[in-house]
Write a structure and sequence with these properties.
This protein is of the alpha/beta class. It is 35% helix and 12% strand. The strands form two sheets. A six-stranded parallel beta sheet has the order 2-1-3-4-5-6. A five-stranded parallel beta sheet has the order 9-8-7-10-11. The protein is globular and about 65 Å long. The protein starts with a strand and ends with a helix.
Length: 355
């Protein structure tokens, strides 16, 4: 196969390092990288610097550009070269107009948001996917293949309406070799670790006081450590934690991996960090029950997910099929009708039996 030209669309550091790892498995092709970008309404807000808290700008864009520069990777910001044979991206809640004509592979970045009220309102009213954040992952259908972390996630994405023939269970870089974390050193051991979220920085609601009090109850006198999300307002969040848990330690700006490896208990609500904690055998307190977690855990293949994805990429590059973005059947409304019928039948059955 002749040398091809591939554009890798980055985002957070997790997404950026995922793209870099995949590119290393495709050394026979020309690789170009860009921070995440958009060409529509979000692109306008981005240029006006009104959404700096998202992966389109702010610290995420700066970190990505620094990483690309430090690793001497070729940058084509916003894909302006416009002559790619393949685009690989880890997010499709918005898809830039200028890449829709290229063959595309979507990579699952990690945990996706649960389908809450925003998800249902967005789907019911056909609002832009970004209104419901990552719970809409995959639902652009603007890709040829979607590489996912596990069979559990495959089934979850199919239930949300993604074409099964487009999904490949390859594992995902950064989440495919948790065993390598077991020997990481940290200055403390046997503590309770809390991973906080940037949910309020992204304009959603969180009762942080409730989380801190819950952590104090679980710790019950044991050392309590909080690790802030990279996108949180550091001073404000530290002051908040110290107000309710003055003895707790707070870390920020460091990798959470050594903390995960050495804690006994891990508390968070909904985060990709649940997976390494679960695989490492920690006592996990989160919004997902253990049975569901077992199904979703990314396949552990010794760190070969990037190679698996590279094989999918080469398969697509050698394919002669044209880029056709047909409209996928939206099963949301039929599922909604079926769920309502089920709830009504259950209500009637309870009424008839006197319950």
């Amino acid at each position: 196969m002749n040398k091809k030209k591939i554009l890798y669309i980055c985002g957070s550091m997790n997404q950026t390092t995922q793209m870099h790892k995949i590119s290393l498995e495709l050394p026979e092709h020309d690789a170009y990288f860009t921070p995440f970008f958009d060409t529509g309404f979000l692109g306008l807000l981005n240029r006006l610097k009104l959404i700096e808290f998202t992966i389109l700008g702010g610290v995420f864009k700066r970190n990505t550009l620094n990483y690309l520069s430090e690793n001497k990777l070729k940058i084509d910001y916003r894909g302006k070269n416009d002559d790619y044979d393949l685009v690989i991206t880890s997010q499709d809640i918005t898809v830039p107009r200028n890449i829709k004509k290229f063959k595309t592979i979507l990579i699952q970045e990690g945990m996706t948001d649960p389908p809450d009220w925003r998800y249902h309102v967005t789907r019911f009213l056909h609002l832009p996917r970004w209104c419901a954040s990552t719970s809409m992952t995959g639902l652009s259908h603007q890709y040829d293949y979607f590489c996912v972390a596990s069979e559990g996630f495959r089934n979850q994405f199919i239930e949300r309406g993604i074409n099964p023939s487009k999904i490949r269970v390859t594992g995902i870089p950064n989440f495919d070799n948790f065993d390598e974390m077991r020997d990481l050193k940290f200055e403390y051991k046997n503590f309770v670790l809390v991973a906080t979220s940037d949910i309020r920085e992204t304009l959603k609601y969180e009762n942080r006081k409730k989380l801190i009090n819950y952590a104090l109850k679980i710790a019950n006198g044991r050392k309590l450590i909080f690790k802030l999300h990279p996108n949180e307002k550091v001073k404000k969040r530290i002051d908040e934690i110290k107000k309710y848990a003055p003895e707790a330690l707070v870390y920020h700006g460091v990798s959470i991996d050594p903390l995960l490896a050495n804690c006994d208990v891990f508390i968070t609500k909904y985060s990709s960090t649940i997976f390494p904690a679960f695989v490492l055998g920690k006592e996990v307190h989160c919004a997902i029950d253990n049975e569901e977690l077992k199904k979703l855990v990314p396949i552990q293949n010794g760190g070969t997910s990037a190679k698996n994805i590279a094989e999918v990429a080469n398969e697509l590059l050698t394919s002669s099929r044209s880029v056709v973005r047909g409209r996928e059947k939206d099963k949301y409304y039929s599922d909604l009708r079926n769920n309502l019928k089920y709830l009504l039948k259950r209500k009637v059955a309870r009424t008839n039996t006197g319950h």
